[in-house]
Design brief:
248 residues, 2 domains, disordered C terminus, elongated, alpha+beta
Length: 248
């Protein structure tokens, strides 16, 4: 759900009265036309079962195909606790670059697991965007093909892959867990590398990223309606026609 820039969300208890939503403690809710809100109700209160099925169905589309390269950002240190020499940095916007990143390892999306074969029968492997009703959007990735020299050839998930790479390169760390959504990067059409968190959290900024835009187009084709409210139209003031005699 999109809200105004810098706005603060406020919860309002409401009750359905004679076909209208009223403030639970009495009176109308003083909101202007066009206000967007989220209505949370018990599913048993929805009388139209077809509508309930429509808004609660589970759908999935492939976002990245089998074999897609992903970059993993690591912060390694050499012997003596000295920072290792930094490698050339790929084109990653600074706001997405994990602090202290000095090494970027390439891995690839591998074939799907046995469990995923039932969920994504049409695809051999990849990264999928899963939408459950209107409440939850998440990513699921097939196993990761590790680079040569890794302890194992295949990691069961991006998080597993990060742990293996961290154990190999980040030996200064006491813990080798990490957030795959911020440490793994995919490449956009313009050449930039963006974190997987953009795919997971950026569903309402899809115009800025071609990959997520295409994924949501496919989802909405299956849904039969647009998940994102349309942007308000901007009106351009009409110019006054110049006087026919002006300048003569």
């Amino acid at each position: 759900m999109r809200y105004g820039q810098g706005s603060r969300r406020i919860g309002l208890p409401v009750q359905r009265v004679n076909g209208q939503w009223e403030f639970l403690y009495g009176g109308d809710v003083p909101l202007p036309d066009g206000t967007i809100a989220e209505l949370v109700v018990d599913s048993s209160a929805i009388r139209d079962r077809d509508f309930l099925n429509l808004i609660s169905q589970e759908l999935a589309v492939q976002v990245l195909p089998l074999g897609t390269p992903l970059l993993v950002a690591l912060s390694d240190q050499s012997h003596g606790w000295q920072q290792a020499e930094a490698q050339p940095r790929p084109t990653i916007p600074l706001q997405f670059l994990p602090p202290g990143s000095t090494r970027f390892i390439t891995v690839h999306i591998g074939p799907k697991s046995k469990r995923q074969s039932d969920l994504f029968s049409a695809d051999e492997g990849g990264l999928w965007l899963r939408q459950t009703g209107l409440d939850r959007c998440e990513l699921e990735c097939s196993p990761i093909l590790m680079p040569e020299g890794s302890a194992k050839a295949v990691a069961q998930s991006p998080n597993h892959a990060f742990t293996m790479l961290s154990e190999q390169y980040e030996q200064h760390r006491l813990s080798h867990t990490g957030n795959a959504y911020t440490q793994f990067f995919y490449q956009e059409a313009d050449g930039q590398w963006l974190p997987l968190s953009v795919l997971r959290d950026g569903m309402f900024k899809r115009a800025e990223t071609s990959v997520i835009h295409l994924a949501w187009q496919q989802l909405e084709t299956k849904l039969g309606w647009c998940h994102m409210p349309p942007s308000p139209k901007t009106t351009v003031p009409k110019r006054n026609k110049p006087d026919a005699d002006a300048g003569q």
